[in-house]
Amino acid sequence: MSARKILILNGHPAENTFTQALSDSYESAAAGAGHDVRLHKLSQLEFDPDFGQAGFSGAKRLEPQIEAVLADFEWADHVVVAFPLWWGGMPGKLKGLFDRILLPGRTFDPRVVTDGLPKPLLTGKSGRVLVAADTPPELMAQYYDNAAHVQVERQILNFVGIDPVETCHFGALQGASSEERAAWLGTAAELGALGV
User: Fold this and answer.
1) What is the 3-class SS of the chain, one letter each residue?
2) pLDDT band for position 52 (50/70/90)?
3) Spatial separation of the C-alpha atoms in residues 178 and 183, rounded to whole Å
4) What backbone phi and psi angles, to 5 degrees, belong to 19?
5) Residue 172 has what pLDDT?
6) Residues 88-113: what's their mean pLDDT?
7) Tell me, what's the pLDDT at 1?
8) Which domain covers residue 37, as residue numbers?
9) Which CATH number do you get for residue 125?
10) Which residues make Cβ contacts (< 8 Å) with residue 175, sequence separation at least 6?
11) Beta strands 125-132; 162-170: pairing state
């Protein structure tokens, strides 16, 4: 595969986490394979995560750091979102980021509706979701119907045109051996090298 423009969003609100290790592993391998990579860390972004209203008119002005994230969503060929599973979903600050930056006119066009959905504007891009969790993947599928995966894949990324999107679920982190963790980081590196 030829070199790609890759955005990596480390969606953990803290530093020095396994989510960061997954992001770093992906980034290092992708850059080493010649891909053009940009990494944003949620922990370093300063913004108000509260959208603050029910409608889009009069939305808050984007802070410079999250304007840069949105610009990189527009720039990228491939979008990677890594996050920890907290209470069955993504951390609140990450959801707040999506609330703030995925706006009409930039990421979708509500004036053009097909089958009840607005026209997506971030088309021609693929996505990868990396989920770090204490919930093992088989339990995530059988008991929770992969709800967090569906939210990010379909209700967020697909909604704005990023398609296809594939998810890798790494867990259970609690009690995982160093060998298991190394294997998961190896998987992230393999994906990064391929740019998928």
Assistant:
1) CCCCEEEEEECCCCCCCHHHHHHHHHHHHHHHCCCEEEEEEHHHCCCCCCCCCCCCCCCCCCCHHHHHHHHHHHHCCEEEEEEECECCECCHHHHHHHHHHCCECCCEEEEEEECCEEEECCCCEEEEEEEECCCCHHHHHHHHCCHHHHHHHHHHHHCCCEEEEEEEEECCCCCCCHHHHHHHHHHHHHHHHHCC
2) confident
3) 9
4) -60, -40
5) 97
6) 97
7) 66
8) 5-194
9) 3.40.50.360
10) none
11) parallel
Kindly state the tokens that stand for 108.
């979708």
Kindly tell me the burial class for residue 113, based on how many C-beta atoms sit within 10 Å of its own C-beta (0-12, 13-18, 19 or more).
exposed
Specify the residue for token string 């679920």. 169
| Domains identified in the chain, total number | 1
Q: Is the peptide bond before 164 cis (omega within 30 degrees of 0)?
A: yes
- Residue 59: its pLDDT value, please? 83
Asked if the model's pLDDT at residue 114 lies above 80, the reply is yes
Q: How far apart, in whole angstroms, are the C-alpha atoms of residue 124 and residue 196?
A: 14
Query: Is residue 78 predicted with pLDDT exceeding 90?
Result: yes
Cβ atoms within 10 A of the Cβ of 196, count?
Answer: 17
- What residues does 167 pair with on adjacent strands? 129
